[in-house]
Design a protein that fits this description.
single chain; 140 residues; OB fold (Dihydrolipoamide Acetyltransferase, E2P); 11 strands
């Protein structure tokens, strides 16, 4: 697991520029929010997740989140079918703060084109440069 400044960024994940992570699982992807997003948001008090069985396009809203000081959304990283959602988050959204990379996953999707979708995401060395820029931007 890579640590960039004070943020955990697991090496085996892909990242979007709106602070979601994407994990390849065969022909599916599991999606959640980064440690950076959950720390910036503070204590998350509400999340609205999509329903399983819904087809979503890249750029659609995957979920909306709220904390005491922030409201935002996570966008769909690649087109596909939502096959599973983390139902525990509705009753216990603070799981996103406590364990964003394991228990805090948001949805599992079956993408139309997984390899094409993954090539548009950040991974490896690109993650450190991008996140360093985000940290600098948010410190101002």
């Amino acid at each position: 697991m890579a640590k960039i400044d004070k943020y955990e960024m697991p090496d085996d994940l892909y990242y979007t520029t709106d602070h979601a992570w994407v994990k390849e699982e065969g022909n599916r992807v599991r999606i959640g929010i980064t440690d950076f997003m959950q720390q910036m948001a503070g204590g998350i008090t509400f999340i609205r997740v999509p329903r399983a069985g819904k087809n979503l396009q890249e750029g659609d809203t995957l979920c909306t989140l709220q904390s005491g000081k922030w409201a935002g959304k996570v966008l769909v990283p690649m087109p596909g079918l939502v096959v599973d959602v983390n139902k525990d988050l509705a009753m216990n959204p603070q799981i996103l703060n406590e364990d964003p990379y394991q228990r805090g996953w948001i949805a599992v999707m079956e993408p139309v084109d997984i390899s094409g979708g993954l090539t548009k995401l950040l991974q490896g060395e690109k993650v450190a440069g991008w996140l360093t820029g985000e940290i600098t931007k948010h410190r101002k």
